[in-house]
């Protein structure tokens, strides 16, 4: 099978699922070693990346004839992980409704404001509803670029409330201001640049 060109929103789990493979087999394939070294996270690819997807392998099973047999296909769900804050403090024990591709899932944030929920690897978008639906947070799945890309830095800044405008690869005054605000909040040197220490802290607070 030729390499697959990544589109916005794709991830290793979603591409593997679409081709009937386990994501670990795709991610760990020798043909993807350079991509794995570059991106490091199977959920954070960039449009234009190339992913090798191996051909499916057949498997034979011997069973007695004239009997009924049940074969179960293994599934590999993906998981959403989020942590919510209000004025710098975790939003503890708040009930929520998570809507993913039309499916409604109810739950409660834990004592650190965290949410973890299994979803389909092919899910692309959803909504998180809080305060009985009065607060709605849109969710894009698979659209987070690596923190080594400026677009990934800007996505994380926007998600954390340090608004820097369009999530592209252009460094501008709004981005520099957002970086300085983030650096001040986390007691980093206020350079206004996406330096190594700032990227490391962004990765820590927004994996």
What's the arrangement of secondary structure elements?
Blueprint: E1 4-5, H1 12-18, H2 23-27, H3 33-39, E2 50-51, E3 78-83, E4 85-86, E5 89-90, E6 95-100, E7 103-108, E8 114-119, E9 125-130, E10 135-140, H4 150-159, H5 173-185, H6 196-205
Would you kindly provide a written description of the structure presented here, covering whatever features stand out?
The model has no long low-confidence stretch (mean pLDDT 86). The protein folds into three domains: 48 residues, no CATH class; 63 residues, Sandwich (Immunoglobulin-like); 56 residues, no CATH class. 25% of the residues lie in helices and 21% in strands. It has a four-stranded antiparallel β-sheet, with no helix packed on it. The two termini are 31 Å apart. It has six helices and ten strands, in the order βαααβββββββββααα.
Write a brief structural summary.
The protein has 207 residues and is α+β, with helices and mostly antiparallel strands. 25% of the residues lie in helices and 21% in strands.
Name some characteristics of this structure.
207 residues, four-stranded antiparallel sheet, 6 helices, 10 strands, 25% helix
CATH architecture of the largest domain: Sandwich
CATH superfamily membership of the largest domain: Carboxypeptidase-like, regulatory domain
**Helical percent range?**
25-40%
Largest sheet: 4 strands, antiparallel
**What is the number of helices?**
6
Euclidean distance between termini CA atoms: 31 Å
- The beta-strand count equals 10
What fraction of the residues are assigned to beta strands by DSSP? Answer: 15-25%
Sheet with the most strands: spatial strand order: 7-6-9-10
């Amino acid at each position: 099978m030729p390499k697959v060109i990544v589109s916005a929103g794709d991830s290793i789990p979603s591409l593997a699922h679409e081709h009937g493979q386990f994501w670990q087999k795709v991610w760990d394939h020798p043909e993807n070693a350079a991509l794995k070294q570059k991106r490091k996270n199977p959920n954070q690819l960039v449009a234009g990346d190339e992913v090798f997807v191996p051909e499916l392998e057949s498997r034979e099973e011997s069973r007695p004839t004239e009997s009924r047999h049940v074969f179960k296909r293994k599934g590999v769900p993906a998981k959403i992980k989020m942590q919510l804050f209000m004025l710098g403090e975790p939003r503890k024990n708040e009930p929520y409704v998570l809507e993913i591709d039309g499916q409604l899932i109810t739950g409660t944030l834990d004592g650190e404001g965290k949410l973890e929920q299994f979803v389909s690897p092919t899910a692309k978008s959803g909504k998180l509803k809080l305060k009985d639906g009065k607060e709605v947070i849109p969710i894009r799945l698979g659209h987070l670029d690596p923190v080594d890309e400026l677009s990934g830095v800007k996505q994380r800044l926007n998600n954390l409330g340090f608004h820097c405008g369009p999530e592209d690869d252009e460094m501008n005054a709004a981005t520099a201001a957002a970086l300085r605000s983030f650096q001040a909040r986390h007691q980093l040197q206020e350079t206004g640049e996406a330096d190594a220490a700032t990227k490391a802290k962004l990765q820590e607070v927004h994996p």
